[in-house]
Amino acid sequence: MTLNVLFLAAFKYTNFLAGNLDAFLGWFSLPQVHIFRIYAPLGISFFTFYAISYLVDVYRGEGPIQKDPVALAIYFAAFPKVLAGRLLSTGKLLINSGAERSQPPV
Predict the structure, then answer these.
(1) For residue 30, pLDDT beyond 70
(2) Using CA atoms, how far apart are residues 58 and 94, in angstroms rounded to an integer?
(3) What are the structural domain ranges in the chain?
(4) Percent of residues, the chain, with pLDDT higher than 90
């Protein structure tokens, strides 16, 4: 969970901190810090908080441990959940993702 938050902080705040450090160093006529501009991937906060919600649900025993990386990636990338208005629990989504499908209705 700490690693998830560290990635989020690195992507979102590195440019902000470097800009403030440059302004601070400029007051004292010190050389500025030059870093490459880091662009945050689209939806990084969304994916980070879903990863944390998955870890918390598994820790509490409210959701299954997903051993299939494809199913886990689908859980994280299921954007229609955004319309639900809140983070849905892991158990509600992962249980249904592994269910066997019968013949499609005619």
Answers:
(1) yes
(2) 11
(3) 1-40, 41-99
(4) 2
Give the CA count within 13 Å in the CB-facing half-sphere of 68: 9
On the 0-12 / 13-18 / 19+ scale of CB atoms within 10 A, 99 is exposed
Picking from 29, 32, 36, 28, the residue whose alpha carbon sits closest to that of residue 10 is: 36
61 φ/ψ angles, rounded to the nearest 5 degrees: 80, 15
Q: For 83, which DSSP code?
A: G
Chain centroid to CA 38: 17
Q: Are 93 and 80 contacting, i.e. CB atoms less than 8 angstroms apart?
A: no
Query: Token pair 């490459």 is at which residue?
Result: 36
